[in-house]
Write a structure and sequence with these properties.
Elements: H1 2-22, H2 29-40, H3 44-52, H4 57-66, H5 71-92, H6 96-115
């Protein structure tokens, strides 16, 4: 039963990740990392396909081997976070508490991403 749930989750994460290829604000790699983890426990064939894919595989293998995030992805994370923060501020007119909370969460996420090896 767990294997079937992980297989479905892996397929779902793969689909979301592939949407991220064409939608600029939706990240690709985090969803594919989740998909690969699900496939590792449910389908060796799909895990191998994902890891050996010429375009999708290299960042997944780099993450698995070294916990590495490519410089391009780090730049996109900074850009996406900045854009998201600006949209948040302009669209919702939050108070200072909400603004600080969102800023701190985004900065914590960026700190994690930027401190990973490239």
């Amino acid at each position: 039963m767990l294997r079937a749930v992980l297989l479905v989750a892996g397929l779902l994460f793969t689909g979301i990740g592939l949407l991220g290829v064409v939608l600029p604000v939706l990240p690709t790699t985090p969803f594919l990392i989740l998909a690969a983890a699900c496939f590792a426990r449910s389908s060796a064939r799909l895990e191998t396909w994902l890891l050996d894919h010429p375009r999708l595989g290299p960042p997944l293998r780099a993450w698995r081997e070294r916990g590495a995030i490519p410089p391009y992805a780090k730049g996109m994370a900074v850009f996406g976070s900045a854009l998201g923060f600006v949209v948040f501020r302009l669209a919702s007119h939050p108070g200072p508490g909400a603004t600080a909370a969102v800023a701190l969460l985004m900065l914590a996420g960026l700190a994690y991403v930027l401190t990973r090896p490239s």
